[in-house]
Amino acid sequence: MTTTTRTPPKRTAERTARTGSAGRRSRREPQGAAWVFLSPWVLGAVVLTLLPMAVSLYLSFTDYNMFDAPQWIGLRNYTQMFTEDARYWRSVVSTLTYVVIAVPLQLGLALAVALALKSIRRGRGFYRSAFYAPSLLGASMSIALVWRAIFNDGGTVDDLLSRAGLDIGGWVNRPGWALLAVALLTVWQFGAPMVIFLAGLQQIPSELYEAAAVDGAGRWRQFVSITVPMLSPVIFFNLVLQTIQAFQVFTPAFAVSGGKGGPADSTLFYTLYLYDRGFTASHMGYASAMAWVLLVAIGIVTALLFRSSRGWVFYANEEER
């Protein structure tokens, strides 16, 4: 006769409760560990980013000179900025002109060098590092000062152009040329977008070029019909990134103009004028208002770029979506 042993209901309930509590602990433990590892980033984001942004937003509605307590003035900083400050609008025009000149030239040169490096078989790593080096050095004040000396009266560029019969003089002392000198410094720092372009070019299937060559397409036709469409997401990424950086340019303009934005405010970029209002004139409330307008402007420009991308950026999985 077979005897069946049954587990008492009370013991079964206790076992189920222990299993359930252990499962809940196992689910909680990874979350706790994740928060421990994320805590330095979260603390840094709150203390170094979110809190200063909140303080800056409050100061933009005050009259604050960094020595006395802030005095609430409402929208006066913004109304003064848009209706009374002529230098503010000159800084806006200078910045927009710089962005329109520097960003296309930089991306065009980066793409050209990336196409050249793609066809190089030997020494590609060396050339890639050599062309990337200006991106590491160009943001420093020392390089900006050297750039100013090169484009100053009697500098290297002035000497070369004089020998060629073009007596232009030093670019940094002429309103029509100073901004171009600053833009060329940015164009010279094309290493970062070049590396991104090179990575994108290496992802384009070679079969597409082979099929186009069989159909009789030349180099230019292959570039227009294959390279540009397949590389359009990378072009868009670099365009957004470099546009945002161009709106925030400061060091080259400060070094070339001596911190004044000259000559004739031709290099008075937005961030340089913001620095002048905040730290030279001690109008920190006004500078905070300028910073928030710049943030909103960059957000609008970025949104417009994303909206325009629907018509010219091609993604390989668009049909699947």
Automatic annotation (TrEMBL):
Cellular component, GO, one term: plasma membrane
One biological process term in Gene Ontology: transmembrane transport
Database matches in CDD domains: TM_PBP2
Pfam families, sorted: BPD_transp_1
UniProt entry keywords in alphabetical sequence: Cell membrane, Membrane, Transmembrane, Transmembrane helix, Transport
Intracellular or extracellular location(s): Cell membrane
PANTHER family for the chain: ABC TRANSPORTER PERMEASE PROTEIN (PTHR30193), ABC TRANSPORTER PERMEASE PROTEIN YESP-RELATED (PTHR30193:SF1)
Protein name: Sugar ABC transporter permease
